[in-house]
Design brief:
Blueprint lengths: L1 H7 L3 H8 L13 E6 L19 H13 L5 E4 L1 H10 L6 E5 L21 H7 L3 E8 L6 H17 L3 E12 L2 E4 L3 H12 L8 E5 L5 H6 L5 E4 L7 H12 L4 E6 L1 H4 L6 H11 L5 H8 L1
Parallel strand pairs: 1-2, 1-9, 2-3, 3-4, 4-5, 5-7, 7-8, 8-9
Antiparallel strand pairs: 5-6
Length: 297
């Protein structure tokens, strides 16, 4: 169906976007978010855990994303245009918060990887599609002269999204080169430094969310800004129980509003997508409504 529609009636994509039922807000009623990430392939990433070609079959990947989106408590999806358009045609995005990924030009393993060009959505296209926001990756390597170009491009994107009242989901890392490849520095001080730089990008931070890795001492990392903070899932771990434990602890830190997870839930070690998603949803703390009501009065 997708191939036939794309070949014969490509305008159906815009029609599906216009017909999509939008959520009241980019978060749920408790101010929380559980977002499925599916933008890896746009940077040439196909592997997940021990499976080098896990995401090479688009039909299987879409099946897994649809299953994840169908689980209770999943609030949205973040993906590249090709995947989001498939999901629109499949009619599975009603009521979900949709975030279009923006800079995918820093292909994994490329000589120019740190120079992460904006090759996917821009703010105008995200607004035209009626999505809730855009996501950008910001890797900061003090030793690589290509870093400032990415910082400047991300700052413009933050401003452009904010001017339209759309969320800018910024994923910042301090990074370095290891054997010619860009590697994130997954240490608390590095995460803090990346977060404070990312928080100041653009003409306003009013619509900026941060998407940060789970590292040690998350209390310090999340306390570094007042921006809503989402936790990213990262690569598939062999010990998924330990991963869930780390996520759960980080989610209890004030300022953490939810998760953005892709491969860890779409390709879990036991291949049970529904169970993995349900477990992740259950980790997100919910506010005590009685306490909230009492404080409000």
């Amino acid at each position: 169906m997708l191939l036939e529609t794309r070949a014969r009636r490509p305008a159906a994509i815009a029609e599906a976007a216009a017909a999509r039922r939008r959520p009241p807000a980019p978060v749920d009623d408790d101010g929380r978010a559980m977002i499925i990430a599916a933008d890896h392939t746009a940077r040439g990433i196909l592997g997940a855990g021990q499976r080098a070609e896990a995401m090479a079959d688009r039909g299987e990947l879409l099946d897994r994303i649809q299953l994840a989106l169908s689980r209770p408590g999943v609030t949205g999806v973040m993906a590249s245009p090709d995947i989001l358009e498939d999901l629109l045609l499949l009619g599975v995005l009603d009521g979900k918060a949709v975030f279009g990924t923006m800079n995918r030009g820093g292909l994994q393993g490329a000589a120019w990887e740190i120079d992460d060009r904006f090759t996917a959505y821009d703010a105008a296209a995200i607004a035209a599609a009626g999505f809730e926001g855009g996501k950008m990756l910001v890797r900061i390597d003090p030793e690589d002269a290509a870093t400032p170009a990415t910082l400047e491009a991300c700052a413009r994107a933050v401003s452009d999204l904010a001017a339209r009242g759309l969320v800018a989901m910024v994923e910042p890392f301090m990074a370095g080169s290891v054997e010619g490849r860009v590697r994130p520095i997954l240490l608390p001080d590095a995460a803090i430094r990346a977060s404070v730089v990312a928080a100041a990008l653009g003409a306003t931070s009013a619509y900026t969310w941060l998407k940060v890795p789970v590292v040690h001492d998350m209390e310090r990392v999340i306390a570094a800004t007042t921006l809503p903070t989402l936790l990213l899932g990262g690569e598939v771990a062999r010990d998924q129980a330990a991963t869930f434990e780390r996520w759960g602890a980080a989610l209890r830190v004030p300022g953490a509003i939810g998760l953005v997870v892709g491969r860890s839930l779409l390709f879990p070690p036991d291949d049970d997508v529904a169970a993995a998603v349900d477990t992740a949803v259950g980790l997100i703390p919910r506010p005590d409504r009685a306490s909230v009501a009492a404080s409000g009065s």
